[in-house]
Amino acid sequence: MDKINPHLEDENEILEQEIKTNVTEITPITKQYLQAVSQIKVLGNQFFLGDGRSTVCITVVSDEIIRVRMAPQGIFLVDFSYGLSNEEFRISRIDTHEDDLEYRISTNTVNCTITKSNFHIAFSDRDDVRINEDEYPMHWEENTDFGGYYVYCTKKAEPEESFFGLGDKPTEFNIRGKRFTLWGTDTYAFAKDQDPLYRNIPFYIGLNNGISYGLFFDNTFKSYFDFGFQEKNQVSFWADGGELNYYYIHGPHMMDVVKRYSHLTGRHPMPPMWALGYHQCRWSYFPEKKVKEIAFNFRSKKIPCDAIYLDIDYMDGYRCFTWNKRYFPDPKRMIRELKADGFQTVVIIDPGIKVDENYFVYKEAKEKNYFCRRCDDYFMEGHVWPGRCQFPDFTNPEVRDWWGDLFKECVEMGVAGIWNDMNEPAVFGLGTFPSDVRHNYDGKRGSHRKAHNIYGMQMVRATYEGLKKLQNKRPFTITRSGYSGVQRYSSVWTGDNVASWEHLRLAGTMCQRLSISGISFCGSDIGGFTGEPDGELFTRWIQLGVFAPLMRAHSAGDTPEREPWSFGLEFEAICRQYIELRYRILPYIYSSFWEHFKYGFPILRPVVMHEQGNKENHFRQDEFTFGDKILVYPIYEPECKSVDVYLPKGEWYYYWDNRLIEGGKTENVLTPLDILPIFLKAGTVLPEYPVMQYTGEFEIHELLLNIYYASYSVNSFVYEDQGDGYGYENNFYLERKFLVSGNEHSFEISQNLEGAYSPRYENCRFKVIGVPFKVGKVLIDGWEISQFDLNEAGNLIFVCDKNFRSIEILS
Ligand code: MIG
Predict the structure, then answer these.
(1) Residue 437 burial by CB count (10 A; 0-12/13-18/19+): exposed, middle or buried?
(2) Which helix or strand (DSSP H or E) is residue 450 part of?
(3) Are 239 and 202 in contact, with CB atoms under 8 Å apart?
(4) Going by C-beta distance under 8 Å and a sequence separation of 6 or more, which residues neighbour residue 685?
(5) What is the dihedral of CA 192, 195, 196, 197, to 10 degrees?
């Protein structure tokens, strides 16, 4: 056989290079397509195929993930990724097959087939069902301005195929028929369909014929995705530079795809419990007196709240890591006092460092040569809030360490969380850095063309890693920009939205999209950042916010203040009721987080994820589930009287009256302002805490378990730990795994415990809903209990030891 690469001396050496001067022709190379496969070579789980000039490397990453890379001139770029989590994968076996027409690489779930005559790559399952295939061979074109190549991949889009993903695009949930750019941008008051926004998540999911797969294009250059916009039957993705480097992720269920993508790029670690409470933000609360007044109002009005944010005005002339001593004369004392009242303080930080010889952060970074520079060595300077600024190069590991250490004083003062803003990076006037700015790129070097899309993620990574080192607790961070994998370091919010009903709907869709794109810890600015909501819009947004993993209200400085009490008593009462609901279901929310962390399941799940075979579900975006058990339909329209909610197959309980509803169809429910339609899957064990004004306000004496009867078997679980710290990494947690199953005469609940943590309370209080027979007796671990009651609503109530193994409810 021919040599895999004419430049290759030693056949066992994989050619990689850092300097990309491999242009070999005098005239620019115009669009080139891979030609017929003429060479094949195997090195372990890597398969090199060449056409005489270019080389393609196909790597079996796991039983379900196949990676494809293309080197136009046969030499790959140094293999490095900010996106990957570098977790371990399992490869059970790899089989190969070759005949005159094709070469085939198979794992125990997926085949990757390369057609020799045209270099088309296709993926199929073990039943030989084609899932994804090239429409054209991969191609490239010389970039004469910057060197390297534009790289392209064009695949077939099946007539009925739907597409999802890409992080934060403000458009319909199903993205078929649309084209997008990934180039993080500061988009104040963004409009529906505006593109690009803040985040860069090159991951999408295809779903056709009940089978779904994922594709992660791990390339940080400006990139593009076209889902049948230009050509109805084609999907293309391409980038302005770097390598054509993608991962095919096998399903067939969307849930599997998201789980595997989360394995590839990482999950959000367990957040501190308080971060799942209600957060109040504003640009800006100052001076101290104002902050205290807000805190006082929450407590005196008995509206639960865990966090107050300080926006840019807390700083001295917008200098990061400083305080405006006129507004906040003694921040440490203030933070301590807020803490004593149950409030965590979160402060904002920006990447722009004020050019000021008397400012320690500037001086240090200048001395150490940490600021980004232009191609001719001038500093990258631009205007942001502080005036003229320079910007640390967060792609330099040494800069990240330095930045992380800068939080020392913050941490000592008791600041509990850091909000990372403007990290696209945003620059007034210019928008962002010019493309000639140079970056360290973890020693791999690159211009801003290559580093732009990961700059923000490296900033929040530096923040997160610094906090983790400095404090003995789980860091809380929130970021505006990010690339795939940003979830390993931070939560995100959807950016500068608008107080409009259209934006409320977008918030619902965007959070679902972020969630299935690996970023589960997300939320929108409740109430809308710009503009002015009325009481109804704000209240509906609070209701949506209860079912967003991150629940934070925020507003721009030029708008009237908006706290839950800003719109009069009627709205205040409903907002309070819903924020209380958030606190009641906190143990459920926390458990859903654990499921995300442990297994990579998204927290918000669109209906299509529950029933992907049903084509109508590909277009549903209003209702979704939070975790596995709670389905909600937030109200996205003013004066809405009722909605038709689609419930996936199975039985559901309507939260407000506990009536049982058969799923697989829509259900019409009335929606006065105090009603957000909420449904629970039959068989759910829903843990509930008493309402607290902030997490951990008092110790609970028993855990309430709401159990929804099912006439079949259903699994549920509840996760508990200390609410902070890293005990859970060493088995110091408790996972209660429940199995419930019922028939006409009996209902059984069994419990299995995992982990070494034991909560302080002794008992669980049961509230069993929907038992269809008259209860005669209740047995706990085989012993009949003497006392159980029925409440006014007919629910069965009893108390039992928290470590029970089985409960039988008999007629
Ligand atoms: O140029 O810090 O998206 O949440 O309140 C605006 C002030 C800068 C943009 C953020 C917004 C924040 C605001 N910031």
Answers:
(1) buried
(2) helix 448-470
(3) no
(4) 705, 706, 707, 716, 717, 718, 738, 740, 749
(5) -10
Which of 186, 188, 283 most suits a substitution to test ligand 1, by most atoms within 8 Å of the C-beta?
283
Choose among 396, 603, 406, 634: nearest CA to 505.
634
Closest to 139 in 3D by CA, of 155, 156, 150, 152: 152
Pocket test of ligand 1: the residue of 311, 432, 497 to mutate, having most ligand atoms within 8 Å of its CB, is 311
Residue 336 burial (CB < 10 Å; 0-12/13-18/19+)? Answer: middle
> What value does the CA radius of gyration of the chain take, rounded to a whole number of Å?
28
**Cβ-contact 588, 553 below 8 angstroms:** no
Tell me if 113 sits within 8 A of 121, measured CB to CB: yes
Report how far ligand 1's centroid is from the alpha carbon of 117 (Å): 54
Cα 478 off chain centre by:
11
Q: Is 496 a catalytic residue?
A: yes
Q: 72, 99 in Cβ contact below 8 A?
A: no
- Is this model's pTM higher than 0.85 or not? yes
| CA–CA separation, 497 and 504 (whole Å) | 9
Mean pLDDT, 10 residues at a time, the chain of 811 residues? 46 60 69 96 96 97 98 94 95 97 98 98 97 98 93 98 97 98 98 98 98 98 98 98 98 98 98 98 98 98 98 98 98 98 98 98 98 98 98 98 98 98 97 98 97 98 98 96 98 98 98 98 98 98 98 97 97 98 98 97 98 97 98 98 98 98 98 98 98 97 98 98 97 98 97 97 98 96 95 95 98 95
3-class DSSP state of 185: coil
The token pair that represents 232 in the structure block: 């109805």
DSSP three-state, residue 351: coil
348 lines ligand 1 (CB under 6 A): yes
- Residue 283 in contact with ligand 1 by CB distance below 6 A: yes
Active site residue 801: no
